[in-house]
Amino acid sequence: MVHRVAVVDEDLCQSKKCGLECIKDCPVNINGEQCIVLPANKVALVSEELCIGCGICVKVCPFDAIDILNLSEELKADKVHQYGVNSFRLFRLPIVRRGQVVGLVGRNGVGKSTALRILAGQLVPNLGDYESEPTWDKFLAYLSGREMKEHFEKIADGELRVSLKPQAVYKLPEAWKRETKLLLERMDERGAIREVVEALNLEGTLGKLVPDLSGGELQRVAVAAAALKDADLYLFDEPSSYNDVYQRLAVSKLIARTAEAGKAVLVVEHDMAFLDYVTDYVQVIYGEPGAYGIVSGLYSSRTGINALLDGYLPQENIRFRDHAVSFGQRAAGETVESEEAIASYTAIRKSYPSFKLEAEGGDITKGTILGVVGANALGKTTFLKIIAGEEKPTRGKVKVGAKVAYKPQYLSSSFKGTVDEFFMSSLGTGLSEPDLQESLVSPLRMEKLLARQMDDLSGGELQKVAIVATMARSAEVYALDEPSAFLDVEDRFVVARAVNKMVKARGKSAIIIDHDLQVVDIVSDRLMVFSGEPGVSGAASKPLAKEDGMNLFLRQVGLTYRRDVNTGRPRVNKPGSKLDREQKERGEYYYVASRREESPEAG
Ligand code: ADP
Ligand code: ADP
Ligand code: MG
Ligand code: MG
Predict the structure, then answer these.
(1) 163 touches ligand 1 (CB under 6 Å)
(2) I need a surface site. Which of 117, 151, 242, 429 has the fewest CB within 10 A?
(3) Are residues 464 and 487 in the same domain?
(4) Same-domain pairing of 268 and 402
């Protein structure tokens, strides 16, 4: 038995511009019943009771606004929340446990933030009855006999203190315009300000006004504010956005310490290495972004992340994606490179009043993707801008024989109009190139975005548009600054693979800055490593062989990686563990197990 779910995207449904195809062509309507109607609010309304699941409306809607999905009947009993008629619904809830860190992972738009707001008591779940006022009593009755009942009894009674680090840290400056120090002092219920500030390296930000903080500083201030509250449950919604690898590590240590102190912790995260490292358990939310999300059972971190990448949940016996997101590892130094330089630069110096960058000279060769790693504020963006011709070096020369397509780190959408109009006006064409269609447009589901207004897009959606717009240009060098920011794990893999494939197939080159090391690993052939003192001076290495680059970088960070025996997925070693010490001794920080992995040919 199935139950029907109809979802109409309010932003996409444009009943004034279409020919009301859904209403005219619905066979139930033709038979004289009212399955799809147009109420006064001008957004099509689909009756889930009358709908026969033929899919005709989905097909005929010129704006891709309707989704009809068939879910198993049993799920109906597990509906926790539905925002409104024909809108997003969440099934089941994550579990939290004292003294442990549970991770929550899934695509953008499957309900992770919704689940967190419910756990925090900020959103009273309506069990699908969006027409009446939801109450905790109704919800508690539903929970009878379930693990989370006690949690919500305390929430309802106001006895459970919850601290939530919200996803949207960019809203913080609107709420607090004064000094960071005053904000943290206000939040500090535990008397732990010095300890937390030190753990997150926030000493330098205390005197700054919150609106003047950089993205990474803002994120860590938000994490600090959440950690300083005295709570029983701590919820961290995407704490690694804007942060570099060091900062991600510092945040993980703080999260681990919070759990060790006996608190329950839940983390939403898209960086798999970080998620794996920081959590004890993982729950996957799967479903259809924007339509519905189902929270899986509790898995060990390793099994949960493998299941996510696999697209198959063993406990539930559910395949939620028809293909695995595989690593298809390329051993370091395996790729054949051309010697032909598309761009080359001499030693470069760039001086700002309070910052200076020194870069060794190098080449960007044809068919090669150069990855760039390093802490924040070491001049990576400055370097990329110099390559892209957006900034002039103080000393040194860049020779780029041809055009550079550049995607900046910070995206803004001042463009007034739809995504489609944006592509037309910035590219002069649509997105019809076959390789672009196949590798990016279709897997990133760009069609769904085309009719949306640019200034309504979420961070992840804007990132996808910017990446596609950059890769759609005809250029010799593609320069992408932090493309994985705000993308979910599936889109990260899509982008990393697509960029690699397209650049090679077109015989072009690329230079890509990113903090998700798995993305860097998949996308790049060579690596450039930035070192130095953040905000003061940066030094950039010449392009290195990938293995040398990773070793150089991870030695600075102090992390080693092993490979998951089943999937080849890189996993961070516990610092000080036997493997960690052995690998450090051998100087094999990243590409170790891949070479030592047992294979029949290895002999
Ligand atoms: P995630 O955190 O996994 O990206 P969210 O929980 O933020 O997902 O959102 C899940 C879905 O619910 C999205 O389609 C979003 O547009 C929708 N949604 C979120 N908040 C509301 C709301 N207040 N009213 C209606 N829809 C909402
Ligand atoms: P990264 O991308 O590695 O985080 P950036 O290149 O953005 O680093 O910045 C490096 C340093 O240079 C930072 O301290 C930043 O404040 C400073 N900086 C960047 N652009 C300018 C500028 N236009 N004027 C003055 N200082 C700048
Ligand atoms: Mg979210
Ligand atoms: Mg930068």
Answers:
(1) no
(2) 429
(3) yes
(4) no
179 and 210 Cβ atoms separated by less than 8 Å? yes
The burial class, CB within 10 Å (0-12 / 13-18 / 19+), for 354 is exposed
Ligand 2 near 352 CB (within 6 A)? yes
Ligand at shortest distance from the CA of 482: 4
Choose one of 42, 76, 110: the last residue of a domain: 76
Q: Whose CA is nearest to atom 23 of ligand 1?
A: 83
CA of 249 to the centre of ligand 1 (A): 29
Tell me: do 309 and 419 sit in the same domain. no
Q: Is 181 exposed, middle or buried (0-12, 13-18, 19+ CB in 10 A)?
A: middle
Residue with tokens 């390793």: 302
Ligand at minimal distance from the CA of 213 is: 2
Cβ of 108 below 6 Å from ligand 1: yes
pTM over 0.85: yes
Residue 356 pLDDT exceeds 60: yes
Q: How far apart are CA 548 and CA 305, in angstroms?
A: 28
Residues 377 and 524 in one domain: yes
Asked if residue 523 and residue 446 are part of one domain, the reply reads: yes
Q: What is the pLDDT of residues 12-51, one digit of tens each?
A: 999 998 999 999 999 999 999 999 999 987 899 999 999 9
The alpha carbon of 412 and the centre of ligand 3 are apart by a number of angstroms equal to 19
Task: Check if the beta carbon of residue 488 is closer than 8 Å to that of residue 108.
Answer: yes
Of all atoms in ligand 1, which is nearest to the CA of residue 291?
A: 14
> Same domain, yes or no, for 130 and 270?
yes
Q: First and final CA of the chain: distance in angstroms?
A: 52
Question: pLDDT for 58-76, tens place per residue?
Answer: 999 999 999 999 898 889 8
- DSSP letters for 567-601: T--EEEPPTTSHHHHHHHHHT-SSSSHHHHS--GG
Q: Which stretches within 120-214 are classed as H helix?
A: 136-143, 149-156, 172-175, 180-187, 193-199
**Shortest-distance atom of ligand 1 to CA 117:** 6
Kindly report, residue by residue over 102-112, the tens digit of the pLDDT: 999 999 999 99
